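Field reference: sequence -> structure
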Amino acid sequence: MDFSQAADLIYAELVHWSRAGIKLIPNLGLAILILIVFSFLSRWVSRWGVRGLNRVSHNVSLINLAGALARVLLMAVGLFIALGVLGLDKTVASLLTGAGILALAVGFAFQDLTANFISGTMIALARPIQVGDTVETNGYTGKVIDIKLRSVVIDNGQGQTVEIPSKDVFQKPITNYSRIGQRRIELAANVSYLDDLDRTQQVAQQAVRQLPFVLPDRPVDLYYKAFGDNSIQFVVWFWIDPIKTSPMAASSEGMKAIKKAFSANQITLFFPTITFDLKQKLDESRAIDS
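Structure field:
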């Protein structure tokens, strides 16, 4: 075959391809239009589906998961229809087969990523935690602000957010301070051996019980724990609604209330003798300076 025959053959093939391409333009335009329509349709269905589910369910993570899945499925349907319009039926079958093989390969290659997605789905379905809950998990404590498929985002209350992989949250223990809606606060202190323990108990319980954030239907308990070298150790337990007040604020107000009540009733909270000596020396120094 000489050069002219090869050129004629190439020219003929190019003409054939160009004619086939021209004939395919209407179908190609229709396929593109189908993809555009399904793109808008998937967003619309996802948006309205999320709004509809918000009316019947408060599971934010599950609602977001359903919206994302609906969008992906509609886009996949649009892609297969567009390929069918182009006459690429065999390509559709090959894509389905390849997608299965690719999913299997990705599952083995990215086991942690796959585990996070599966764990995120299980968290959305089982709902061990929800957006707005105050939780402790994997060494972090804070308020859940977002539950994604891959991770859980927590506000640690110190101006930072912590993103924990869903696998770790799902597989490790979770302390949920918001599930029951109540939280017990524990205050520890020491009282002098010279004070009456029954009276000390009544005064402390009454002082804490009068705090506005203490749940009235739960008891305020005081237990003596041990005899110390110079004092008797005790703990006070009371219950709060963690949504209305923070544990730190409740603990602080409880300490102030107990100290004020003990001072009014001549009950001595134990403190080291050196503290008294230091205060006396400071008072004497101020008196001399004045």
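Note: The chain has a mean pLDDT of 78.
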